[in-house]
């Protein structure tokens, strides 16, 4: 009934850390992830710290760039370009969302594609959409890995993705489309959300509203992926009311750990592929 992200993440991280160790014995260096955060939203600071801890445990290095909320687009782009040019950095993650006055898209595009281990650039998005095997957006990539690990058939199924953010909803929809799902993307302007969700075989909740998805919206036997991660460790799905789902991810222990595992895996792959490897 439960799709355990914790278990899947353990396997992915285990393999990534073995590859990291090989890389280190070959080059004398560790794969290195740079994390960039703008402003001091406490939740974002927590996620970034979590990512750094996981890196360390798996034998990766991480460097952190913390910028004030008043940072301009130009300043942020310049910092990210510098990381793109820094041979000691193999992967770059810019924490979404950035403060509203910043052009987030320009900042993402300053990540050179071969360091885009969080899969946020236009290049990576296009590759995902065409089903090419490059860096995927970590959370959506983790979601598809979870579905595969639990033998969920995707082709021909109706997948309803709620949310269309550049790091989650939109790329999740493209990955599911590339796997031949029939995809509906819902967002804040969607009319009749409950009725649409009721027709879903696979539901991906990616909004950031605690318990937005009610039990009555879930078709019996549907597969429910709750990517929401809200204050108090609650997801976007009313978990207690979803006992009739076929499979469901818990929060915590579902999508979150898988996301970080994919991030580490892609950082190791980035290091391995870079010219000096
Ligand atoms: N576990 C993990 O690894 C990750 C978890 N998260 C979590 O997932 C959630 C979403 O994150 P993120 O994508 O970054 O959030 P954003 O705030 O960037 O995007 C939220 C999306 O939800 C849509 N939305 C808002 N309200 C409604 C509504 N009432 N009905 C339908 N759609 C709505 C918005 O629509 P519109 O576009 O119209 O504004 C938007 O597309 C958060 O809880 C976050 O913490 C995020 C990333 C990774
Ligand atoms: N560019 C970008 N990429 C992201 O991937 C990204 C981002 N921005 N902005 C913020 C969100 C949030 N996010 C989480 C990752 C892991 C957990 C996670 O592992 N949670 C644990 C709980 C951990 C705990 O609280 O102890 C779990 O669900 O089991 C949660 C949230 C990634 N995000």
TrEMBL record:
GO cellular component: cytosol
Signal peptide: none
Reaction(s) the record says it catalyses: (6R)-5,10-methenyltetrahydrofolate + H2O = (6R)-10-formyltetrahydrofolate + H(+); (6R)-5,10-methylene-5,6,7,8-tetrahydrofolate + NADP(+) = (6R)-5,10-methenyltetrahydrofolate + NADPH
SUPFAM superfamilies per UniProt: Aminoacid dehydrogenase-like, N-terminal domain (SSF53223), NAD(P)-binding Rossmann-fold domains (SSF51735)
The Tetrahydrofolate dehydrogenase/cyclohydrolase catalytic domain, residue ranges: 3-118
Record InterPro entries: Aminoacid_DH-like_N_sf, NAD(P)-bd_dom_sf, THF_DH/CycHdrlase, THF_DH/CycHdrlase_cat_dom, THF_DH/CycHdrlase_NAD-bd_dom
GO molecular function, one term: methenyltetrahydrofolate cyclohydrolase activity
Pathways per UniProt: One-carbon metabolism; tetrahydrofolate interconversion
EC numbers: 1.5.1.5, 3.5.4.9
Binding site for NADP(+): 163-165
Residue ranges of every copy of the Tetrahydrofolate dehydrogenase/cyclohydrolase NAD(P)-binding domain listed in the record: 137-274
Sorted UniProt keywords: Amino-acid biosynthesis, Histidine biosynthesis, Hydrolase, Methionine biosynthesis, Multifunctional enzyme, NADP, One-carbon metabolism, Oxidoreductase, Purine biosynthesis
Gene Ontology BP term (one): tetrahydrofolate interconversion
Subunit structure: Homodimer.
Membership in a protein family: Belongs to the tetrahydrofolate dehydrogenase/cyclohydrolase family.
Role summary: Catalyzes the oxidation of 5,10-methylenetetrahydrofolate to 5,10-methenyltetrahydrofolate and then the hydrolysis of 5,10-methenyltetrahydrofolate to 10-formyltetrahydrofolate.
Protein name as annotated: Bifunctional protein FolD
Species this protein is from: Lentzea albida
Gene that this sequence comes from: folD
């Amino acid at each position: 009934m439960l799709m355990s992200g914790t278990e899947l993440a353990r396997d992915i991280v285990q393999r990534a850390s073995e590859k990291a160790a090989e890389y280190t014995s070959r080059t004398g260096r560790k794969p290195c992830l740079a994390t960039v955060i703008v402003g001091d939203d406490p939740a974002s600071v927590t996620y970034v710290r979590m990512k750094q801890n996981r890196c360390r445990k798996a034998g990766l290095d991480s460097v952190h760039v913390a910028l004030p909320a008043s940072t301009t687009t130009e300043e942020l782009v310049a910092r990210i370009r510098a990381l793109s040019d820094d041979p000691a950095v193999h992967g770059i993650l810019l924490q979404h969302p950035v403060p509203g006055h910043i052009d987030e898209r320009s900042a993402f595009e300053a990540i050179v594609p071969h360091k885009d281990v969080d899969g946020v650039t236009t290049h990576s998005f296009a590759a995902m959409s065409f089903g090419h095997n490059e860096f995927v957006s970590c959370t959506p990539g983790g979601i598809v890995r979870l579905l595969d690990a639990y033998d969920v058939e995707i082709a021909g199924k109706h997948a309803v993705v709620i949310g269309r953010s550049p790091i989650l909803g939109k790329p999740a929809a493209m990955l599911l489309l590339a796997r031949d799902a029939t995809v509906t993307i819902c967002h804040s302007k969607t009319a009749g959300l409950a009725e649409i969700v009721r027709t879903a075989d696979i539901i991906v909740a990616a909004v950031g509203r605690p318990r937005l998805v009610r039990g009555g919206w879930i078709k019996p036997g549907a597969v429910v992926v709750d990517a929401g991660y809200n204050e108090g460790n609650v997801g976007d799905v009313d978990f207690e009311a979803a006992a009739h789902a076929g499979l469901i991810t818990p929060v915590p222990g579902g999508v979150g750990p898988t996301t970080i595992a994919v991030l580490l895996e892609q950082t190791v792959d980035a290091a391995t592929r870079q010219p000096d490897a």
